């Protein structure tokens, strides 16, 4: 029976957990976007905001304020946003939805160090509260290089935008990189922490918003089939790969001196490792999941010898995708003697009863064979074969592959008899493809993450502790590499340098060809 | 690619489907459900198109049952639209001739995707007792659309009397945007709701369902007002602090007026069949809120029709 409700009270009497048709809708709020003229804003953030509106997940009282160093009026910003939405949104364009959204669009022009511009910003959001009923709830999205964070955060504090009245909230969203080592990550956090309490800080790792990444937990903890195998008794080793086919391109200025490990392993790959290796959380709440991730990240150990347990490389000129491409050192904006790695691989261990002795091989790189991100659990061979060794010659190790992108899905590899009179066993693939079926309407990672920020739902955002733990893992490797001189060159379009292959060959294993 | 199998049998259809899979080689059966569309020659084009569009979100095997001349010899004409022709799922159009039209279950049974849920959809006038229907009996979820009947409210009321878990009606699905917007206005404190109003076309069951939902959830009296439409034109919550009013005159954009906030316009477009169908396919368990609301509505309308 229904319990007596008091209308107007919390919980909302019109919502019921049985009523699963009603979507989660953000409350009245303003999203302030710094760096609105950037690529990310144009290609991902603005389209994602439109898609949310189109799916009916933004409230009528919603405002979007752009802040940038352009001499724009509100209409100019609206025109730019319109263009971005038209080009990049995933859902069909609907004039009515756009009109609703554009009524809440505002633009503030100015420099980040300009007090007057922030006073104008403060006036603008408060005016939106009055005009649109946005309720004094503001989220600040800093789509900016981290070196600008201190300026913005101080300005927000100075202009009284950081403190909220009564029930209203303030949230700040920051994008990776969260520093370039432990020290700088702490400094960066201190800057933000000084003004915003930890629960108001949302660190976006857009990988965690991907359906396939969220599916890792569903796959592991909702099924009975996989969890019994998910340990050292059955798993031989784990490979986590994120390969890009592009070069450093327009990111040269940012990339040089950072390198593949800081750019990808510290955040995306270690987060994937945490999700794959963690124990089952007590509940599906943000705190419980983060607690498990932190536990497993603190149990990660580096190889005893960094020399043989890691590998790095730089792409050399070569042929890729039907065209000749430049080597890293020849890219525009890269010094000739750069020692920045564009390929990084390492062998990590997890000291726990579940994983003791199971190596986790991580690799990432630019200008590799193709663009792919996947996690592969490679299982041990059967301890005893009743079949002749010639019969099972073609049989590899069983593997469960979680394909994160671009062809999202799950693959299971196992042996099967080849039809015919002879007994011959060969690998076959069982395949679940997500991508092709769901791409059209499954939400983009940024959509999910922006909605979570506006609702205030934190499970998909890493906490500062996780960031620091990842740097703790990576820092010794970076220090070691810094002393090693120049990285090895590898051909563009190949699967990385020789040392990367040797890393596994030494253990009698080899990389999967994804 | 479309394959035509005139005067065929279900085993020939199954063989054709299997041969298809073998010729592609490997590949998993990605279909998450079987959607049976019970329709006629006039309706089937739009219905299959809506089902195919919904199939982008839910890859499914669509079985369209089209009843033809009941007087002729029993036989089946099949038309197989392969995966990739129109979305990730496959569609099989089955034209049933003669007495076979009375036994659609026998045609459908061998063609259901193994182990996965079955959904039946009547885009036109649906049966009064869906769970007892020869096709409905096979389905986990039965979707009807009272709006297509000559007397929509009466049609829905009749079906509510025969409700069984798994039944649902598109007049309820079309309401979700309204309900979601109204629910979000009450996410902020509003004080006691004293009464409410719902305005819409007469003979428009969605409006009655909305009134019933508000009255059931808020435990207040809800007045049902009549307007020229299209569809539902407004809803008003009268609270002790003031009114919350959502008005939509043109079927596209609504204005939301709330006692403590400026008036806003909200895109609130009427939904297309494919959108409603996609929502229905998202959850395949019994919709308890629909059951409660529909029964509440039936009780309310019955009371009203009794002479005072």
TrEMBL record, chain B:
All copies of domain Glucose-6-phosphate dehydrogenase assembly protein OpcA N-terminal, residue ranges: 51-157
Domain (Glucose-6-phosphate dehydrogenase assembly protein OpcA C-terminal) ranges: 165-293
Superkingdom in the source lineage: Bacteria
Transmembrane segments: none
Entry-linked InterPro entries: G6PDH_assembly_OpcA, OpcA_G6PD_C, OpcA_G6PD_N
Matches recorded under PANTHER family: OXPP CYCLE PROTEIN OPCA-RELATED
Protein name: Glucose-6-phosphate dehydrogenase assembly protein OpcA
Organism in which the protein naturally occurs: Streptomonospora wellingtoniae
